[in-house]
Amino acid sequence: MNTIETILSRRSIRNFNDKNISKEDINTILSCAMNAPTARNQQGFRFVVVDDKKIFDNISQTLEHGKMCKSANKAVLVCYEIKDETSELYWVQDASAATQNILLSAAYLGIGSVWVAIHPRESKINFIKEQFDLPENIKPLSLIALGYKDDFLKKLDRFDTNKIKYNSWNTNWQ
């Protein structure tokens, strides 16, 4: 699968089977995450890899949109080291780029994934900080549930010329 095929075929997967994701694949996914672009090359993202079923159960019972974690094989918590932030408020974009790279690299490897948003909801942030014993200088952005699914969802064509303008807001895409 090439890059364009990976992007166009990636879908949010919410049900996983019990096949194990290898440490090698997790390291590949994390390497891709760490190669995401960052403002001023800050590289402040940090990651917590999760494979504890008790944690998955707790997340699925506590987070409103975290039910899919119950069947996840692994997850990656994407965080940011605020002490590394040299361009104020860009941490969200930097950690989001890392999150996207996790989703895309997982899809390339045949691993299903879904983005569970944590930031900016204070209740979710507080729960995650407590669940993972995060220090004050680490901000959580997202949790990516990972696992294998027997059959992936079909590719959707979401291209829509009505969402494109050309050179100004008043000129439609041709």
Radius of gyration over all CA atoms, rounded: 17 Å
How far do the termini sit from each other?
30 Å
Low-confidence stretches: none
The arrangement of helices and strands along the chain is HHEHEHEHEEE
| Number of beta strands | 6
The share of residues in helices is: 25-40%
| Broad structural category | alpha+beta
- Overall morphology: globular
Main sheet properties: 4 strands, antiparallel
Beta-strand content bin = 15-25%
The number of helical runs is: 5
Side by side, the strands of the main sheet go 1-2-4-3
Mean pLDDT: 94
Account of the 3D structure:
The chain is α+β, with helices and mostly antiparallel strands. The protein has helices at residues 3-9, 23-34, 53-62, 91-108, 122-131; strands at 45-50, 74-81, 112-117, 138-147, 165-166, 168-172. Strands 1-2-4-3 form a four-stranded antiparallel sheet, with helices on both faces. A hairpin with a 1-residue loop joins strand 5 (165-166) and strand 6. Helix 1 (3-9) crosses helix 4 (91-108) and helix 2 runs antiparallel to helix 4 (91-108). It is globular and about 55 Å long. The model has no long low-confidence stretch (mean pLDDT 94).
